[in-house]
Amino acid sequence: MDRQELDAREQAILALERRGFAGAGAKERAIREELDLAPVRYYQLLNALLDDERALAHDPVTVNRLRRVREARRSER
């Protein structure tokens, strides 16, 4: 599938990542309530988005920040 644009769910995932969350569980609650996804599935989709050039074009600041976080976690292992 050669799409140029992110679909609505992909855009919503990146939008949720741009927000700050106060308190434990607030982000997971938003994932369930706003996106109707289980947190595990959300993080699977997010991880795939970080490797998608369309996501980088859509929101380079968020994608690059999350790529740095992911790389830092990988190097800690």
Write down the Rg: 13 Å
What is the helix tally? 5
Instruction: Report the portion of residues in β strands.
Output: under 5%
Q: What are the low-pLDDT stretches, counting only 5+ consecutive residues below 50?
A: none
Shape: globular
What is the percent of helical residues? over 70%
The helix/strand series, from N terminus to C terminus, equals HHHHH
* Coarse structural class: mainly alpha
Measured between the Cα atoms of the first and last residue, the distance is: 34 Å
* Average of the residue pLDDT scores: 93
Instruction: Report the major sheet.
Output: none
Total beta strand runs: 0
Describe the structure.
The chain has 77 residues and is an all-alpha fold. It has helices at residues 8-18, 26-35, 39-50, 53-58, 60-76. It starts with 7 loop residues before the first helix and ends with a helix.
Topology:
Elements (H helix, E strand, L loop, with lengths): L7 H11 L7 H10 L3 H12 L2 H6 L1 H17 L1
Q: What distinguishing features does this structure have?
A:
77 residues, mainly alpha
In short:
The chain is mostly helical. The protein has five helices and no strands.
